[in-house]
Design a protein that fits this description.
Two copies of one chain form a homodimer. Chain A is 39% helix and 22% strand. Chain A contains twelve helices and 14 strands.
Chain lengths: 333, 333
């Protein structure tokens, strides 16, 4: 196995975030399920946007947020995702490259616009996402560069890739290349409704070893095993995944593996403003910890730190140096 | 004089803000004058953007920010400014309408893209703006709807309108219509370098009474009268303007008129994050105070309150209800 060129390479739906602070009434009036990610078509996107208040925009996308976090912490990071060559796509490309991430996926020159997520943030800080996949629909196996995948120590994939029509083929192709090159593959289950749509396939990915490391939050874990009992679900996860990491919001996280179960507390915060990107940035810190050869506990603490930063402001990308933040808190960087 | 349909109508350069937190070194490396607004062409825009870190985007434009603040406080507001019918222009149109502002200026269907300002925010919270005017170049007198102007109690114009080639004709046209209808005209001097470019014309606008109320910050005031002595400059402003309002950052503001000189303190803040929009939102609060028939002192306090809100977060548009904030602080709404 040759030395890796990238520490972590992420593959995901490239999505531009349109964020707005709103109230519970807006969610109810539009039939939205609070805290979830709903896929919407262009007509519904227009209808939601028309009713939304003034917004703030920034680049997003679950795996992209994670990869930006990894780069921000100081590791070598790459991203694969499909945008269109339009004004928003150019903002997207700028932001991810400016974050120090290698991003070489060819933008679509025609077809749907760069994908957007209309994100409603309620006063309790919870976010509810409505995603128009747009150009992200068109990620295909041909966007996977075998040499780049083989040169990345960890491949990070999002469960959301099961939604576009051919992205999962790209996902499986990347996983195969990575494993053939002796690399690790991590997967996030993304969203409890996403798990509900693809439960059997996700379980299959874990049981066949297509993914070595699995990230899930509590809702996703419960959905995966269709049980409301946390311990039962956790036990099953420990059987199915080589390493399973379950995030539990203010209760911290739990890491399960053949070596045992480790609980790591959440990082204290002053005020939760917007949970958008909490799971994504947790994964960033955790993956960065693994890259640096830290144990699961230190990796969990790095994840908690990165998540704490991102939930204290609007948007899913870090606004401060996570590297400095980790140093200030005595964590490995 | 018929009853007004709008309390305040603003005319300005419609600009989309691309904000990034950076360090002093970036400004130096790119030859930027800290705290100012520099006009840039497309080539320089590309060159600055290429070197900028990951950004956050939101609608901006000086007079537009003010008008959004006026609407947020609860008054009836309208805006005139030129965007292009492109992706960014559509974000822009959404945001200002979603803020409750009447915005009917026909977007350009060809020509340059919607204008953008690349705004560098340094760790001290100061912002340095690099503005590509784009479609804002093409605001002309034909964009001025005489009936709408005549139906607005106060017309608010930005000095920046002197930069595009024919916007100042639109400005003068609007002022004439407003005065013929018995309305008031307010002007912000916008930027000390802008004052330096158009000093004589701005003085002329004040002395001829084209503008009744003039907003300036200290740097603009000093530039206008080419003196470093504040009291000398203030005395001249009192002679030249029917009402002059000078903002002095943490020192509050001073209102001069034939009735005398009133000083109003700044509103206390926890942490200054980004000064972008400070002057714009001060003007929003002050104009709103006048609309509600409050005296200069209460208007100054409303201005200070709105400015305090906007400098405690990234971006030049309010993120909370200024109306509620004013109520909580016992100010008239």
């Amino acid at each position: 196995m040759t030395e890796a060129k990238y520490d972590v390479l992420g593959i995901g739906n490239a999505i531009f975030d349109v964020l707005v602070q709103t109230d519970e009434g807006f969610l109810a009036a539009h039939g939205m399920t609070k805290g979830g990610m709903a896929l919407i078509d262009e007509a519904r996107a227009l209808s939601i946007y028309r009713d939304m208040g003034p917004a703030t925009e920034m680049s997003g996308g679950s795996a992209a947020n994670t990869i930006v976090g990894v780069a921000n912490l100081g590791a070598r990071a790459a991203y694969v995702g499909k945008i269109k060559d339009d004004q928003i796509g150019r903002l997207y490309m700028h932001d991810i490259r400016a974050a120090g991430v290698a991003f070489e996926t060819t933008p679509a020159s025609d077809g749907p616009a760069t994908g957007c997520s209309y994100i409603l943030v309620t006063p309790d800080g919870e976010r509810t996402m409505n995603t128009y996949l747009g150009a992200a629909q068109d990620l295909t196996p041909s966007d996977i560069d075998a040499a780049q995948i083989a040169a990345s120590a960890i491949i990070y994939l999002e469960g959301y890739l099961w939604d576009p029509k051919s992205a999962k083929e790209a996902f499986v192709k990347a996983s195969t290349i990575a494993h053939d090159a002796g690399r690790e593959v991590a997967l996030t289950l993304s969203d409890s409704f996403c798990v509900d749509r693809y439960r059997d396939e996700f379980l299959d990915l874990m049981r066949r070893g297509t993914a070595d490391l699995v990230f899930a939050n509590e809702a996703e874990l419960h959905s995966l095993y269709q049980t409301s009992d946390f311990d039962t679900a956790l036990k099953q996860l420990r059987t199915d995944a080589k390493v399973g990491v379950v995030t539990r919001s203010e209760k911290g996280c739990v890491v399960v593996s053949k070596d045992g179960v480790i609980a790591v507390p959440a990082f204290p915060i002053e005020k939760m403003v917007d949970t958008t990107g909490a799971g994504d940035l947790f994964a960033a810190g955790f993956l960065f910890g693994l890259v640096r050869g830290a144990g699961f506990e230190a990796a969990g603490r790095l994840g908690a730190l990165a998540a704490a930063e991102v939930i204290q402001h609007i948007g899913a990308r870090p606004q401060t140096s996570l590297k400095q933040l980790a140093q200030q808190n005595g964590l490995p960087v």
